[in-house]
Each structure stands twice: as structure tokens, then as C-alpha cells.
Design goal:
0% strand, mainly alpha, 2 helices, 48% helix
Length: 42
């Protein structure tokens, strides 16, 4: 499956993680697909 994301979104999420700001992602995909896409962001 191919997903697109704006570079500014990725930058904002990385900045939030570095600043320990909690956020969540809303997706229409299956939970397994989303988990696989985001597993390396911890």
C-alpha cells in the first residue's frame, strides 16, 4: 500500500516527539497497517 504525507507534517511530528508533546494519528487504514507505518517513530 502506498501512503502520502506532506513533509511539513513529518517535521511537525518529529518536533512534537522531541518536545515530548503527545499526539495521535487518525487514519482510515487498518490498525496493523498504521502500526507498521509508525513503528520506527518512537
Amino acid at each position: 500500500m502506498y501512503r502520502t504525507m506532506n513533509i511539513k507534517d513529518g517535521y511537525a511530528m518529529q518536533l512534537a516527539i522531541k518536545k515530548d508533546i503527545k499526539f495521535f494519528v487518525i487514519s482510515g487504514s487498518t490498525p496493523e497497517g498504521v502500526k507498521n507505518d509508525w513503528k520506527d517513530w518512537d
